[in-house]
Every structure is written in C-alpha cells, then in structure tokens.
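Q: I'm teaching a short session on how sequence maps to structure, and I want students to see two examples side by side rather than one. Could you give me a first protein with its sequence written out and its structure tokens following it? Keep the formatting plain so it prints cleanly on a handout.
A: Of course. Example one:
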Amino acid sequence: VAFGVAFGVAFGVGSLVSSLRILEWVLMTLSCHPASRFFWNRMVWLPLPGLQKSLEEWLELDWQRGVFNLNQILAHSLQFTPALRAANAVLERSTRDRLLSCVATLAAEPADWLLIRYCSADAGNALRRSFVDAMFWLPTRIRESWKQRYPVDLRLDSPARAASAGFWSWHDGDKRSAIDAFEAVSALPHGFELRNIAQALVDLETVNELGQMAEAGESLNWLDALPDPPLRTGTLVALDCLRFVAREVSIALRSRSPLNRSAAFGRAGGELSRLLENVTEDCPYPESKFVEGIAATWRDTVLEAGGVAGEAVLREAIANPYEGYSGLPVTGSTFVGRVGAMRQIETRWATGELVPAIILYGHRRMGKTSILRNSERLAASSTLLVYLDMQDAAWVDETSELLLDLAEALHRRVAQANLDVGPAPVPEDYHSLGAARRAVNLLLDRLDLQMTEGQRLILAIDEFELIEDGIHDERIDPKLLSYLRALNQRHRWLAIIFGGLHTLEEMGRDYQSAFFGQAEHIRVSYLSRDDAVRLITQPDPDFALDYSDALLDDLYRLTYGQPYLLQRLCWEMVNHWNERFLEQGESTPRMLETKDLDRVLTADLFAAADYYFDGVWSNVTEDEQGLMTAMAQREDPWALAELSQLADTGETLEETLGLLKQHDVVLSEDGQVRFASELMRRWVEAR
C-alpha cells in the first residue's frame, strides 16, 4: 500500500510537471535570445511573461500588423491565453470610429476562431466548465449544477464584445443571434451596414418563390444609402447582385411578352451563375457561405421558371423590331454604326470657342435625321438642342412664317430648361420679315442674359436644301442664310448644324456666300460590314431569330450597308417568318436562310422602297443617270475601258464617275467600277 501511494504521488507530480513543462517555461523565461524564446514558445502553454504586453503594443501601434503577429502566435504556439487577453484589452480601449473595422480585421482569417468567441464570452468560465466536466466520478446532476455557476454565453454588454459576438455567430451559423449582436453596435460607424447585412441574410434565405424574390429587391434598397464608407465591400456587391436578380424577376413577372419574360429570367440566371462562380473569392467569410446558399436556391428557381418561359417563346410569333423599315428616324438599339460622325459632332461641340456651322450630308435614307435626333445625348447637360425640320418650309408663304416656326421651337426648348425668355411667340409679332427678325432677336437677347459660361444651344436644321427650293420659288428671302450666320456669330453660345443631301459646294450661290469657308462638312455614308451585321442580328436585346452566315453575306452584298435597305429586307423576312409560324407552329426553324431572302426579293419590295430608289435617281444629273443605266446591264464590275465605249455622257467619264462616287451610288475598286448597292442596280435595270 505504501509503495502504491508513493508511486501514485510520484506519477501524479511527474505528469503535472511534464504537462506544464515547468522546466521549459523557466528556461524560456530566463532566455533573452529571440530564437530561443520562439523555440520554447512552441511547446509551453503556461503564459509567458511579457508576451501579452508585447502583443498589446503591436496591436496599438499597427492593428493590421499586430493581428498578423497574433495569428502567428496562435498558429505556432500554445499561448492562447496571452493572445486572447491582449486582443480583448486593446479592443476595449479602441475608439468608436475604428472598433468595428478592428473586429472585422481580427475575424478575417483567425488562426483559431475560438479567439473571436472568447472576445465576447468568458474564457475563464469555459475552462472551469471543462474542469467540472473532467470530474467524471461526480454524479451528472452535481456537475451540471456546478457548471451553471460558470456561464459562457455570448455577451453584448460592451461594443467590443457585441461586435465579436456578431462575427462568431456568423461563423457558428447562427444568423439570428448575429442580428441581435450587430443591433447593439448599430450606432457605431459601419454598424448600420453590419446590422442590415445580418438581417438581409436571414430574410433572403427564406425566399424560395418567384413572388418573394421579386419583393426582396425592395428590401435591399438600403444599399444605396449607407451612412459610412463600406466595410464589407464584397458582401455588399453580392447583395447588390441579388437585388439585380430580384428586379429582373419582377420584370419577368410583370411582362406579358413571353420573349421579354424569358430574357429577364435569362439575365437573372446568368447573374446568379456568375455570383456562384466568384462568391468564395469576392465575398468575405463568414457571409460567403450564406450568400452561396441563397444564390444556389434562387438559381434553381429562376432556371426552372426560365425554362418554362423559354417554351412559351417558342409558341409565339416574333415582334418585328426593325423600326427603320419605313424610312423614319430610328433610336435605341437599331441606331448603330455612326460612331465616327457622332464623335466629330461631339468634338466640335466640346470646344469653348465659337462653333462653326456643321453640314451633315449624304444621300437619302442614310441616317442623317437619325443622327440629329440622337445627337442630344452627346451634348453636355448644360447644352440645349433645338430640332427644326425644313420640310415645313414647303408650306410657308414667306420668310416671316419660317422665323415664327424657329422662334416657337426655340421657346419650347428653353422653357423646358426653366429659362425665362418671355411669353410664347404669337403670329402678330411676325407679320413681316422685319418684325419677325426683331422678335427673334429679342428672344435670343433675353436668352443671352441667362446663358452662363459653358452653356450652349444647338440649332439642328434638317432637310436644309429645301430652303434653297423656297429661295428659288421666291417664298424665302435669300438673306435668311446670312441672318442665321449672323446669329451664330453674335451669340457665341449658339451653334448650327444642318442635315441635307449636299455639301455647300454643290448647293446654290446663296448658301456658298453665307457660309462658304465657315462651315465644316461631315459625311454620312454606308454602314461598315460589322455595323451592318450588328444591325441585322441585334435589332433588339430580346430578338429571337438567327441569321445564317450566307444570308448575312447576301444582305451586305445587296445593300452595301445602306441602313434603310437593310432594315426593309429584314423587316420583310421577319414578317414572312411570322406568317410561316402561324401555319407551322413551334416547329418553324428559327434560323433565317438565303431562301428566306429570296421570298422577299419581289416587285412588291421594290415598289415599297421606290421612294428611296427614286430619291437617289432624281438627285443626280442626266449624265449620271445615263451612266447608271449603262452599268445596270450586269452585276459584275465594269472596267473603265468598257464604260467609255458603252456610256455616252456629255461630260467626261471621269467627271461623271466622280459625281456618282460622291453621291454614294458607285464604288471604284482595283480599276473597276460597280454599283455600291446591288438593289439599286436592279431597280435601275428594271426601270
């Protein structure tokens, strides 16, 4: 018995000394060499003298660097207690403006997540509870009773403890406790953000139906009104992606068009797929695991709904998006390929000096009016654009009526900009040319007093060659052009852009004398092949038909990128496809082929587009018409030698060809000449 007692005591003391590593702790304490301290530090779990103080100093000096050092201690030693005490001490001393960012940094990638837990809960009580649990020989009832004396619940009684509780709750999967924790610090900088993120993660996780998804977007509008710079940027971006998805689902649910509904579901599904691909990299932990679960649930729901909507698309005809088929100006997605012209206009308007008149020219249906109508978006917010169509000039009896039209257009636009230029123009003030001129001057003088530095008014005059017709008919005074130039020079904020068929050199003496040398010319010609293909294949984001490569080649060959002819052909083909769809139903192929083009190349097409073809024909001289008639005999290009024998022109062949090139009717390539548009050649041949 004595031997047994002695052996037991010796064994117990030896085990205690061995586990505490008293010898190593003493050696490490006496050692002053850093390398030695690190070596012993890896084995000893008794708190090392001075370690807590060193960690506190590091954290106070540079929190980011201090957290790195603290994590190294946790990862490579048993010194959990000094690390925890140091973190708690510095956090309790942190100022309100940096506390939450400090806790977020500490919780970014901790070497031991228990550090975050016991920055809120009582670590000492946790050790005591463990000691009680180890007393296995005591009855369970007694042990449980003793453990109740040592609570280890998360504490919210200080901002540092509440913030730590929030991040631990996220890590532990308890999102609702995170709401309570962050609510306690919501008044601190970034507290509003963390509180709302926690609430959003709880709310969005319960969403599993489309209607709930559509409504969820409104609950995320707080993303636009954060009171502080973002703390959890990746999480906010992920929530904004979910808000985008919610809005697309809302669009889909409100849409009556199966095509629009399918497209909206498609955009939502694509956004969710991108979010899931990048969530673990872009969204910080612990939120990333919740966002990933939400996005996965939403994607399943959206993809299922998108499949149903896609089937509905196959059961409906196509809304024809080619709005330019009629020759009217276009806006939106069908206005393409005018980057060069738009950039030139924008460059001239951006100057602070006197802006010269701009002549936007090209033959009919090339898109000049569309450029003028779409050019307002190029102007700065301080720029006003006034559009005036000179087709009205054909109906006026005298110049004063035209000036009244100009004054009314000016007054409407400046009134929309909340500028005061007096009462609206009345016909009584424009009873004569002199009175009309004085009334316009008065309107502009009043505006002159209100145009601040950098403001500009652009007067866009379309079909300006019709003014010349009025001059020839003696309904419009030739001095009108000089008057417009004088206004441009008198008011430095006033600029004029003309849209028409010709350059000044091709127009009458009155135009040349008024603006010669003081106007810049911008040519509007055919679309490039890339722009033409974009117009054909992407007239609308929800367009549900495809074009074969061979058909794209034929469309460009027939039109050479003439925007009106392109839209006319595509509009006709879509109409024919819809007619077939009504007969064949869902089995109708959604790929348009060259045979679909053959169906629309009929006499009816040329009759419908006759206004365009005849407009080009009537805009050239008799010599040009004669050469066009000769060239129309075949589709293959002509050598110059062949044309010189075939064509009988009063002018030289080179001069006539030069005019046809200038009017965008023919092209010269490798010493050979051909029609730019094959459809134009066929029209001339038939004529």
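Q: Perfect. Now a second example for contrast.
A: Example two:
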Amino acid sequence: AREGESVLALDGRVYMLNHANVVIADGNGVESIAGIMGGEASGCDETTTDVLMESALWDPLNIAQSGRALGIITDARYRFERGVDPAMAVPGLDIATNLILDICGGEASAAEIAGQVPDTDRIIEFPISEIKRLTGLKVPPGEIRHVLTRLGFFTAGQGETWKVAIPSWRPDVHEKADLVEEVVRIVGLDRVAPEPLDRGGAVQGQVLTVMQKRRSAARRALAARGLVEAITWSFIARDKAIRFGGGQKALSLANPIAADLSDMRPSLLPGLLDALRRNADRAQDDVALFEVGQVFTGDEPDDQLHAVTGLRHGIAGGRNWRGGAGADAFDAKEDALAVLAAVGAPMAKLQIVQGASDVFHPGRSGTIQLGPKNTFAYFGELHPAIVETFGLEGTVAGFEIVLDRLPSPKLKSTPTKPALDISPFQPVTRDFAFLVDAKVAAADLIRAAENADRKLVAGATIFDRYQGKGVPDGKVSLALAVTLQPREKTLTDAEIEAVAARIVAEIGNRTGAILRA
C-alpha cells in the first residue's frame, strides 16, 4: 500500500494503510487487505454473477504484523499468519472452483497462475538413535517408520541413519530433534520411564528463594487462621486503579481483554473487594479471603512487588446465639502480625503507629514499620467510602503487606537448629494498672516494661482498657500483665517487688504514666 491509502473493508470500517501493509489493488485503488480481509467495493451480494477466485500465498510474518497493527482478527489472518501448505495453492483453487460449479452452476475460465510455488523440499539426516539419546525411550525401528509414514513423512534407509523427507504442510519441522518430538508424542510420553536426577553424592543447597519461602509461609499462616485463598485478575478498571494509588500511563494496557480490566493493579485490595461483593450478592456475607500476588507501581522490573493481603467481612463464624460484632481493626492487626511472624520479620523491632493510607478508615487503622522510612504494612477497617463504592454493607477489615520491603533474613552460621532453651523455673506474672494520657500508644508501655529488665521480663501484654467514670478527662487506664521468667533460681518476694518497682519507674519515665492505687 501507499502511505495514507485507505480501504472500506467488509466489516464496514475504514482502515488507514501504509507501506508495511500488503494489499490487492487495481487501477482504481485498493481492493482488499491481503490475507486478512476483503474490501466492500469488491464484495459479493445476491446480485453478483461474476466472481474472481483467488488462491494466494502470503508471508506469515507480514500478515501477523499487519493484522496486529490494524486490530483485525479474521479466519484468514488466523490461518495465514500460522502458515498454510504452499503446495495447495493451485489444487485449492481447483477444489473451490469445482465446489462452486457443483453447487451454484456457471462456467469457469482457465486459471491464470502468476509466480512460482515455493520450494519446500527438505530432507533431514535422521539417526534413529537420537530418540533414545534425547528421551530415554526405546522405540523399535518398525514403529518409528510407521509413525513417521502415517504423519506424512517419507523415509528411506535401513541402517542407523535414515533420510526423511518433510511434507510441504509441516513448516515447523527443521531438524532431527523435531522428528524425535513427532515420534515421542505419538507413541506416548507415558512410555518414558521416570528416573531420579543424579544428586552428585552431596547434600544439595537450598532450592527455594527467600521470596518463595515467604509466600508459602504467608499462605500457610493465613489458611491456619481461617482465611480462604483467592486468585484475582492482575488488571483492574482504571477508576479503581486511580483510587488505590495507580492509574499511571505506564500501567495502562494497550490491548485489554475487557474495558473494566484496563490497568495493572497497584494493590490486591480491589480484586478481593470484588470477590467479597460477589459473595455478598449470593448471600455469603461472612467471608474471609486472602491473596498472595504481584502488585505494580511502574513498568520497570523493580516496580513489580510481592504483596500479601487479607480481608474479613461480616461476623467471624457466622450468626450464632451469642451474637457478635463484625471484623474490626484488631482482627486485621492479628492477621498481619501472624503473617509477619511466619515470614521471619523481626517482631521485637516492629513499630505500630496509628493511621494508614487513605484507603483505610482514618481513626481505625495502623501502619507497621521499621522506622519512618521503611513502611511495609497497613491494617485496619477500610474507609466507608471504599466499602460503599464496591457495593458492600457493614464493616470490612483487612491488611496489606509488601514482602519486598521486609529486611533480608540474617544468614545462619550453621544449618542446624539451636539448642532448646527452656527455663526449669516457674514464671511469675504481675499485673499493673496505669493512668496515662490518652494520646500515648499502648505499645510504648509494653516496650518500656520489656526494657526495664531484659533478662527477667519475658513479655508484656495489655489486657484491659478503661475510660470513663473515675478517670480524668484526656486520660485512660491501661492494665498491663508482665511475665517474669527466672533462669538461675526461683525469685523471692523481695526480688519480684524490686523488678516491679523498676517496671513502674521505667514506664513512668518513658510515658508519664502513673500507677493507679
């Protein structure tokens, strides 16, 4: 075609052409796009009496490139871009002509043949021992010859090396390995005897990467907590992509499979929310789902990240006589911490701060980080506007963890497990109630208690929170259970009181909390 030429095709659309598109034309201009679609001007209707029958061969690569560039998918393109039998050009014309004469009648002119049929004759030297060498399969020579002959190949020779002529309709066969494949796929891969690989007589190194181990551990941890794994599309609608932090031009698909799957996902949350909505539409309101997959922040290799996301909707365990509230931020927090513990995150160093991305509820969400510059997880209740956008009712709680942002695990000096370290002495638990400013994070109290005596304090947890009558405005009462684990001897009352005093003093110094009477 000439640059800027156009043609009105049989589908009623006008296609702009250029010098890369092969066309069929006459003195009046383009008649059709070669090997892809005919033009409307040269089309047939119920009044047509004269038909020009054409049987042609086209370059498969050119047909594929032109069809993709023009956005045309036809049966002709499908066949020509995959290659047709060049030896059938003339016989095919005769067959089609005879069909028209038999069914419709009429008269046919003599065929006008232009050009030459391409020479596709190929002969391959085929050592039949290659079948045994490449596949380990022993196939008798008689069976090999029978298979190749039935597939249209021509074989000659009686020794260990045969000459095999390739039929014109098999442009995919070029070498002896292709012939081995043809024989093996017919006689059956089930005849290949399984054999273990040689391990070399030594213990092999690790097979799975750190990321593969983390993904597997995350799946097991969430499944153990009652969540069901879901696999959603990696592409979402553009408006949803923008709402969840995506929508960049680099992440838009040039040829999406559907209008609502136009952009690569920046988060796993949209896909899981759609899954929750589909469940809710079918009266399945108590659903907990998770997904482990890729999210995309750009079109560079490092912009593809591995994420773990979980969502809970409705009442855990469904309706029951005891009643119950829907999933909340604390459920999501427990799920997130369970995943982080399973993948080997440094749990003792994690920092939990209030607030998350704008996808979450501003007052019922949190961020998990290792310092302000390394944020890798969010959890909490999703923003009501997000929940409403996806057609859901009630509360939806969830989390999202980016595994790539977790620090690499430390290499162990030895592959063996460390010795089991269990103290023979009974632990001691002491409870404390502190009056503290409502803006102070509970985690600060826990961290202060653990730092009071790192050798004896085995752990601390918040077990009660009270704010109301008897507590001044702006203050909150937090009850703390601290576990002391002696390792050298049983603690005396005096030693316990001394540790308790240090805990109270450390919490007071760090948070300003006062021990309640």
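Q: What should students look for in example two?
A: Point them to this: Residues 361 and 384 are 7 Å apart (CA to CA). Also worth mentioning: The longest helix spans residues 493-511.
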